[in-house]
Amino acid sequence: MPKKLSCKLILASASPRRRQLLQEAGYEFEVAPPGIAEPNTPPDGILPEVWAEALAYLKARSVAESHPDALVLGADTIVTHGGRIIGKPRDWDHARFILTRQFGGENDVITGLALLHLGRMERIITHVRTTLTMRPMTGAELEEYLAGGAWRGKAGAYALQEGGDKFVLAARGSKSNVVGLPLEKLEEIFSEIEEKYSQGI
User: Fold this and answer.
1) Degrees (nearest 5) of the Cα angle 129, 132, 135?
2) Which has the closest alpha carbon to 4: 27, 25, 20?
3) Where are the domains of the chain?
4) How much helix, strand and coil, in percent to the nearest 5, is found in the chain?
5) How much is the pLDDT for 22?
6) What's the chain's average pLDDT?
7) CA distances from 57 to 62, 112, 116, 174 (A)
8) Alpha-carbon distance 55 to 12, whole Å?
9) Phi and psi at residue 61, in whole multiples of 5°?
């Protein structure tokens, strides 16, 4: 049975992975990709979780302005290694550099979440962190992974759902968060929102 909220839910994302996660969780929703250019480089000194939340808010806000009577969900996932944000690779060589640097140690995957309902003056902004312990890639594994193209457009240059999981030794936290949407946290937020709306708050 589909999970239908008391108001329309809109996913402000063009990500097929986030859409699939929401669908598999059973939610009824529409998709409206945000009409903004996503900044590639964070300001100096900004905390990773603050940057993830800011990008999620910008995405949600750009869609919410055209849908004031809907609950709009924006999300942005970033990867950090040694406390530094690892962006999306520019090209093959940049992907090789990123993967060589971060595989064999701990990475934090942080997803910022923003839920906006302008008509009800609702604004929830938070984030979820998952820590992955990665094993080093051999030279052959690295070249094979690069040739597969799973690194393209991915924060940290890898995706668990496209072969990256075989390099994970341990994970602390939400697995769906690593794919792009922490479903456990969303379920909690949706429940709180529904209870508040049912009470007319």
Assistant:
1) 165
2) 27
3) 9-198
4) 40, 25, 35
5) 95
6) 88
7) 8, 8, 8, 21
8) 11
9) -65, -40
Sequence-ordered alpha helix ranges (H) in 25-91: 48-64
3-state secondary structure (DSSP) of residue 140 = helix
- Tell me how long the chain is: 201
pLDDT tens-digit readout, 140-197: 888 888 888 887 877 777 766 666 677 788 889 999 999 899 999 999 999 999 988 7
Question: Per-residue pLDDT for 200 more than 70?
Answer: no
Return the closest-CA partner of residue 85 out of 108, 55, 111, 59.
108
| Amino acid sitting at position 131 | T
Residue scoring higher pLDDT (86 or 58): 58
**DSSP type of residue 136:** P
What pLDDT, on a 0 to 100 scale, did the predictor assign at position 11?
98
Q: What is the pLDDT of residues 91-119, one digit of tens each?
A: 888 888 888 877 778 889 999 999 999 99
Given the residues 44, 69, 76, 108, select the one marked as catalytic: 76
Please indicate whether residue 76 is annotated as part of the active site. Answer: yes
* CATH architecture classification, 9-198: Alpha-Beta Complex (3.90)
